[in-house]
Every structure is written in C-alpha cells, then in structure tokens.
Specification:
This protein is an alpha/beta fold. The longest helix has 24 residues. The strands form two sheets. A six-stranded mixed β-sheet has the order 2-1-3-10-4-11, sandwiched between helices. Strands 7-6-8-5-9 form a five-stranded mixed β-sheet, sandwiched between helices. It is built from twelve helices and eleven strands. It has two domains: 163 residues, Bordetella uptake gene, domain 1 (D-Maltodextrin-Binding Protein, domain 2), CATH 3.40.190.150; 96 residues, Periplasmic binding protein-like II (D-Maltodextrin-Binding Protein, domain 2), CATH 3.40.190.10. The protein is globular and about 60 Å long. Helix 1 runs parallel beside helix 10, helix 2 packs across helix 10 and helix 8 packs across helix 9.
C-alpha cells in the first residue's frame, strides 16, 4: 500500500514538474499582448507604458498587437482561444470583458470562463468634453443646451465601452437625450469633434487630449472625486453642480483560461511592481489614468462584480442586445 502511494505521488510530481519548471523560467521568449482597440486609444497608450516597464523587468520583449473590432470583441475572442501558456495575453477593458456580456446575444466567449484576470492596472475617470463649435463653456450650459437640442452626437471606442455607457448614464442622471456614435478607429473621433459633427464626449482623457490641446474642444468636467493632474483647471462634476454623475472606466491584463497559476502569479507580481515605478505613474498621470492593482484572487472577484454592475446599468438604460 505504501509503495502504491509512493508511486502515485511520484507520478503526480513528474506530471507537474514541467509546469513548475516553465513557470519558474517564464518567460523564455517574447510575449504577445492583443490590444482589442486601435493604436493611439487611451487603453493602448497606458498599456504600452505598463508593458514597456514589465518587458524590461522580465527580460523579454512584449509585443502589442492591435486587433480592433466589434467593441473589442474581435481581439478578445482571439486571445480567449489562444494557447494558455502565458505567451499570449490580452488587454481587457470594461467593455469587452464586462459590459459586453450583457450587450451581445452571441459574444463568442465567456470572459469569466475563457479568461483569467491577472489584474486591473488603470482607472480612467470620464471627462465630459464638448466641441468648441458648441456654445457651451460649463457642464450646466451643456445640460441646458442639450435639453434644447436633443440628439447631439457623442463618440466612443465602441458599443459597450465605458465611454458609451458613460453617455447612457449621463442621460439617466440629467434627463438629456444624446446619440451614440461608435468608432472602429478612435483616431477619427478627434477631427469629428473639432469639426462639430460629433461634438460630445464622455471620454477617457487620451481620446480627447488632441482636440483639447488644439483648442477644438473644451473639457467641461471630470466625473470623479478629484481633478485630473492632466486637467488641473477642469472642475469635478460635483464642483460643476452635478455631483450624482460620477463614473470611471478601467483596463486590465488577462490571460486565456487554463494558464498555469504560477505564471499568472508572476505576471500579477510584475504588474504590481511596474505600476509603482515613478516613471509609469508619471506616464499614467499625463494620460489621465490612475494606476491600480489587485492580488490575483481579488482581481477575479472584481471581474465578476464589474460584470454585474454593468448589467444593471445596461438594463436600466433599456439597451437592446446586439445580434
């Protein structure tokens, strides 16, 4: 009986040995991170800042592959089907790995079953922004103007993105009626905002930094508790008279489900160390993002809770599911 038990444990140890060895040595070759949004988008900007730092500390290149489409679903689905060995990861926003569960009838993947969250790493406070073509200079003026001119267009990186839902939530809070315009490539949004054809944004700062810097758009309010370092003169929504409108988006790093836990734990540690780097924090601040991180198990709980939160917002907004 003892010999049988010894043989069992020996076989089990031999079976697990390659996993432990690969996790200990990981990474031994370049890592690919699929970015389900276009290059230059807010999530792309901060992810590259983080991944550059992680690449240096891990001793291997981290290659970013932009694969936009269908509100982030195309790239996320590709990553969900990848080999779970730690060499293909995905940048997951609150749209494709949370809100889209409730928005799409056939998503093509289950974020909780097909992906393992390594950790969220950036929070983006929504910036209410208006084209300089609109006759508004404050949040109160925007609300008054929007009520008198229903249907103003606002842009986002796609259906189900935090920017899309921030616009829906703005309608719920203020009673205005605005029209959502999703972009496959957010780079086109800036010129459209400046031109006044899509004059509104409930946006992550990097997506409107260009129009604001060119004086083609005006940041009216920051939908958080504190002003952004990148926009020190822009009031919070509380300061601007609409305290109930507070909303943020987030971005995270995930891996295909089944990736060995030791590899997930190593990536979690590397991510947490990277966001403590002053250079990374400075880059995030410039991009209007706040660095964040969670231990592996807490990240999993956070993921499930965010899916439930967005389900509630979408249900209240009465948004029909996309075929």
């Amino acid at each position: 009986m003892q010999n049988t038990a010894k043989r069992f444990f020996l076989v089990a140890a031999l079976a697990l040995a390659p996993t432990f060895a690969s996790a200990q040595d990981y990474p031994t070759r370049p890592i690919t991170v699929i970015m389900p949004f276009a290059g230059g988008s807010a999530s792309d900007v901060v992810a590259r800042i983080l991944l550059d730092r992680m690449s240096k500390s891990m001793g291997q290149p981290i290659i970013v592959e932009n694969k936009p489409g269908a509100g982030g679903n195309v790239g996320t689905a590709t990553a969900a089907r990848a080999t779970p060995d730690g060499y293909t990861l995905v940048g997951g926003g609150s749209g494709p790995v949370a809100a889209n569960v409730s928005l799409y009838k056939q998503l093509g993947y289950d974020p909780l079953k097909d992906l393992d969250m390594i950790a969220p790493f950036a929070q983006f406070t929504i910036v209410v922004t208006a084209s300089a073509k609109l006759p508004v200079k404050s949040l109160k003026e925007l609300i008054t103007y929007a009520k008198a001119n229903p249907g103003l267009n606002y842009g986002s990186v796609g259906i189900g993105s935090s920017q899309h839902l921030a616009g829906e939530y703005f309608q719920q809070v203020t009673g205005v009626k605005v029209t959502h315009v999703p972009y496959r490539n957010i780079a086109q949004y800036g010129p459209d905002m400046i031109a006044g054809t899509v004059p509104l944004g409930f946006q992550w700062y990097p997506n409107v930094a260009g129009p604001i810097g060119a004086k083609g758009a005006v940041p009216l309010a920051v939908a958080g508790d504190q002003r952004l370092a990148a926009l020190p003169d822009t009031p919070t929504t509380t300061e601007a008279g609409t305290p109930e409108y507070k909303i943020t988006g987030w971005f995270a790093l995930l891996a295909p489900a089944g990736t060995p836990k030791p590899i997930l734990e190593k990536l979690n540690r590397e991510l947490a160390a990277a966001i403590k780097d002053p250079a990374v924090q400075a880059g995030f601040a410039t991009a209007g993002a706040e660095p964040t991180s969670l231990p592996l198990e807490q990240a999993k709980t956070f993921h499930a809770e965010e899916i439930a939160k967005y389900r509630s917002i979408i249900t209240k907004a009465g948004i029909q599911q996309i075929e």
